[in-house]
Design goal:
The protein has 196 residues and is α+β, with helices and mostly antiparallel strands. The chain folds into two domains: 2-89, Conserved hypothetical protein from pyrococcus furiosus pfu- 392566-001, ParB domain, CATH 3.90.1530; 99-195, no CATH class. 43% of the residues lie in helices and 15% in strands. It has a three-stranded mixed beta sheet with strand order 3-2-5. A two-stranded antiparallel ribbon has the order 1-4. A hairpin with a 5-residue loop joins strand 2 (41-43) and strand 3 (49-51). Helix 1 crosses helix 3 (53-61).
Length: 196
């Protein structure tokens, strides 16, 4: 067994975690601890965590003081520059989720319980290898200046790819609608009527 007091979180970890995600991570560690053996915390020779800071915080929050030896891997062969690179690259999302496979092979509620966000499972904000946005992303915002346009609190700002923007413009043209608000309201009403 290894004492968790012999390792420490990276004070300059560029990754953060929300309370709700930390709760899901803690639950995951409780239910599926084997994952730690398969994907251990990676530390440097001084015990600073290079990969797995969020799992470390979850373990501490769960009251762990020691863990199995195979839950921690010491990467003492890395130079300082390689350590910096590892910290950044360890969590990069190089791949993209195959939404069809997830939908056909997994249960939606189970995936959400395991830590997925709804937007990940619907494909919104999903990118391909070119880095182009394939769907849309949205975020609720407060009052701020957005490219010269005042955006009011509670507004939804959509960041879309050129292809999606062109499709939106074509939809508005065919529906003979000029402003985005009316077009969006009609689109939502059409979608709701199809569901109802």
């Amino acid at each position: 067994m290894i004492q968790l007091s012999t390792i420490h979180a990276n004070e300059h970890d560029p990754r953060t975690i929300t309370r709700s995600k930390l709760a899901k991570l803690k639950k995951s560690l409780q239910e599926f601890g084997k994952m730690m053996s398969l994907r251990p915390l990676v530390v440097n020779e001084s015990g600073m965590i290079l990969g797995g800071n969020q799992r470390y915080h979850a373990l501490i929050a769960l009251g762990y003081t020691e863990v199995q030896d195979d839950w921690i891997k010491v990467a003492d062969e890395l130079t300082e520059e390689e350590q910096r690179r590892f910290i950044a690259e360890d969590n990069l999302p190089f791949g993209a989720w195959d939404i069809d496979t997830l939908a056909n092979e997994y249960n939606f509620d189970e995936l959400v319980e395991w830590g997925f966000d709804d937007w990940q499972l619907t494909g919104a904000g999903q990118g391909d290898d070119s880095g182009e946005n394939q769907g849309f992303q949205y975020e609720q915002v407060g009052d701020f200046d957005f490219g010269g346009a005042k955006v009011q609190k509670g507004a939804l700002v959509f960041m879309v790819s050129d292809e999606t923007r062109n499709a939106w413009a074509e939809y508005k043209r065919q529906a003979k609608l000029i402003d985005d608000n009316t077009a969006f309201e009609r689109l939502v009403q059409s979608a709701l009527s199809l569901l109802g």
